[in-house]
Structure formats: C-alpha cells, structure tokens
Amino acid sequence: MTRYLQSERIMGWLAKGIRTGNAHRLPVVLFAILTLGVYVFIEIAEEMAEGEIRRIDEMLFLSLRVAGDPTTPLGPPWFQETAVEITAIGGYPLIILTLAAVAGFFIVTRRYGAAAYAVLAVGSGALLTQTLKQYYGRPRPDLVDHLDTVHTLSFPSGHALVTTVAYLTIASLVIGFLDDRRARIYVLSVAVFVAFIVGFSRVYVGVHWPSDVAAGWALGAAWASLSWLILHFLHLRSRGRIKQESAP
C-alpha cells in the first residue's frame, strides 16, 4: 500500500504544472505518429540490413556533390561552413545546454515535473540512439571526406533522432501553455524545421547516409510521441485522483 501511494505521488508530481492538451484528440494523434514512426523505422532498418537501400542512399548522397567530383559539396564555401555550423545544433553539447536552460526555467518557475519530463524524454532518446547504433553497427559513408568529426557508428543518425526528440519535447511543453492556435502551429513548425535542417546537414557534410537520417527522424518523432503520450495519461490519472479526493 505504501509503495502504491508513493508511486501515485511521483506520478502526480511529474504531471503537476503541465498542460498536455485535448484529452480526446491528443492520444489519437500521438498514437498515430508513434505507430507510423516505428513502422517507417523498421522498414528502413530492414532494407538497410538487407543492403537493398544502398543504391538509393548513394544516389541521394551524391546528388549533393558536384557532378564528376564527389569530393566537392554543392554550393559556395560559405554554404559549406553554414552546414557545419547547423549540424552543431544537433550535437550533444548544444542539446545539453538547451535542455539545461529549458529545465532551469521550469525549475525556477516551480514546474519541476516539466523539467524532469524534458530531461527524461531527451536522455532516454539519446540512450536509445547509442543502443541502436551498436546493434546495427553500420559504418559511416566512405565515398567522400567528412566535413565534420565523428566518433560513433552511422545508423540511425543520432543528430536527427535526438534533435527531433529534444525540440519536439520542448515544443510540446511550450504548446501546452499557448491558447492561440497560430502560436502553437508556429512553435511546432520551428521544432520540425530545426530537426529537418540538422538531419539534412548530416548528409551534406558527408557523415550520414540519407536512410540514417530518415530513420532518425521517424524514430525521434515516435519516441517524442510515446513520451508525451505517457505523460498525458499520467496527467489525466492525476487529475482524476485529485477530483476523487476533493469530492464530498
């Protein structure tokens, strides 16, 4: 009984100070994104493991290089420098700094559950990435020199997956406090755009196959949806418990 009460308090604490959205539509949308994301990831992973996606990967990869000179990316030097700077947005140092700033804000405003949720969702996403990289063991592209230093395996793209989880998680927390529909759409659009340009930059700088990035996007969206879905049900359960306790 004591353990049950402790778990109830923890769930209530985690959901406290968070608005998760419409109680009826949101779970359907999140479950649909979760299902589609996992399906797309599994399909890409199977094609990658069987080697059937290699030709498409190479075609898309080389389409970002000068024809006849695959060592040279398309675009002027300043664009190449910009791509390297953009890809840093999805690196762990900047993700950790951004997450710390967001969590710090929620702590200062005494929304401790939101801070814990952000850290747990992004941290578990990063752990999932490293686990899958070791499981699939796909080498990095070897067709061109890399414009960015890499130390891990290729599939799925950690930058694409973690950036998608991080910015969708932050966006979902912010959206919960916005009543203006246009503002919510804007915040979500910014999160999706950041995830897109980071993933695109990973292919452009030559450190990932397109399928690595696509798989990272798909699983990142699925993981963010799963995390928000769990929190949504914790929030509903906590509200139901409060109503029961306050009932005469």
Characterize the structure shown.
73% of the residues lie in helices and 3% in strands. A two-stranded antiparallel sheet has the order 1-2. Helix 6 (112-136) runs antiparallel to helix 7 and helix 6 (112-136) packs antiparallel against helix 9 (210-246). Strand 1 and strand 2 form a beta hairpin. The radius of gyration is 20 Å and the shape is globular. It starts with a helix and ends with a helix. Residues 4-8 and 240-248 have low confidence and may be disordered. The chain is built from 9 helices and 2 strands; from the N terminus they run H-H-H-E-E-H-H-H-H-H-H. It has one domain. The chain is mainly α and 248 residues long.
Summarize this entry quickly.
This protein has 248 residues and is an all-alpha fold. It has helices spanning 2-15, 25-50, 54-62, 77-87, 92-108, 112-136, 158-175, 181-204, 210-246; strands at residues 65-66, 69-73.
